[in-house]
Amino acid sequence: MKLSTRGQYALHAMIFLAKHRQDGPQPLRTIAEDGLPEQYLEQLLGTLRRSGLVSTVRGAAGGYSLCGDPSEITVGRILEATEGPVSLADCAVDAGVCGKGSDCQTRRTWRYLTESINAILEGVTLSDILENKPYQIKGA
């Protein structure tokens, strides 16, 4: 499993917005100067906006800003918005995709690994990243 540039760039942009949260809305061009392709970034920020993670302000002083506190926005939520649900195998979330269903011996392993990865992704917030905090597995 490898994340696409969508997830990587989205996380990068969200960290940028969290870092500059006190500076007000950030123009697309300013966010792109941090090393992200502007047109691609515009599409990603639209996706993040529709997912309720960023908001936009139009006009000369407009731009993008976080919807919510960085301590409440997780890497898992960002990746799900841009990549879709993180799952190592289709059967990890739906036993019906395979003829073996719940009798499959490997399904249990895929479910455990998928749930573990998702728990880790949900345990890391933008604040954790900015503050260089040690990561905690949610619920552990």
What radius of gyration results from the CA coordinates? Answer: 17 Å
Strand fraction equals: 5-15%
Derived structural class: mainly alpha
Element-by-element helix/strand order: HHHEEHHH
Largest sheet: 2 strands, antiparallel
Biggest sheet, strands in spatial order? 1-2
CATH superfamily of the domain at 5-85 and 125-130: Winged helix-like DNA-binding domain superfamily/Winged helix DNA-binding domain
- Which class of the domain at 5-85 and 125-130 in CATH terms? Mainly Alpha
Distance between the termini: 24 Å
Question: Can you characterise this structure?
Answer:
The protein is mainly alpha-helical and 140 residues long. It has a domain at 5-85 and 125-130: Orthogonal Bundle (Arc Repressor Mutant, subunit A), CATH 1.10.10. 46% of the residues lie in helices and 6% in strands. A hairpin with a 5-residue loop joins strand 1 and strand 2 (63-66). The chain is elongated. The two termini are 24 Å apart. The mean pLDDT is 89.
Summarize the structure.
With 140 residues, the protein is mainly alpha-helical. It has helices at residues 5-19, 28-32, 38-50, 75-83, 105-122, 126-130, and strands at residues 54-57, 63-66.
